Amino acid sequence: MAEPSDPRLRVLERLARLEREELDRRRQELADLERALTELAAQRAALRRSRGSEIAAGWALPGGPAPLGAWLAALARRERALDRAAAELAERCDRARDALAAQRAANRRLEILVERERERERARRAERERKALDELATLRHPRARGGGLRTPERA
To answer: Which residues, given as ranges, of the chain have pLDDT below 50?
Structure first.
């Protein structure tokens, strides 16, 4: 597309480009948060899956079940830490989704403004072209210059 001649339109198009870049950045941020949340959920699931087999193995330890109790307490602390981290990430994801929705709305509003301004620019350009053609037609038409058919003067 040709560079618009209207400075207002150029500014709006640049703002729209910046809004699109910000929207892309927010999308990437949300994707990263969701990926981290998925990884955290996988860690939590793996920890819970391994608990049963490790408890069974703990009973067979040479020191008896005493180290097993310490290990279970550490496991519980680790699960609580993972749960807190998951809750925090989920909250950050929600905030990121809200910010993304707001950014999409702002981007859409700006796109509408740009399209309206482009339409005004097209209308102004068409009006200038129409006036130029009218001027050419006026200059070319003999009657407009006063050189058209003349009626004989009556005495």
So the answer is: 155
Start-to-end Cα distance in the chain: 65
CATH number of the domain enclosing 123: 1.10.287
- Closest to 86 (Cα-Cα) out of 38, 50, 51: 38
- Total domain count, the chain: 1
Q: What is the pTM of this model?
A: 0.66
Q: Tell me the residue type at 19.
A: E
Per-residue pLDDT of 138-152, as tens digits, reads 888 766 555 555 555
Is residue 97 within 8 Å of residue 30, measured between CB atoms? yes
Residue 153 resides in a domain: no
Containing domain of residue 83, as a range? 7-138
Is 114:17 a contact under the CB 8 Å cutoff? no
The dihedral over CA atoms of 85, 87, 93, 97, expressed in degrees to the nearest 10, equals -170
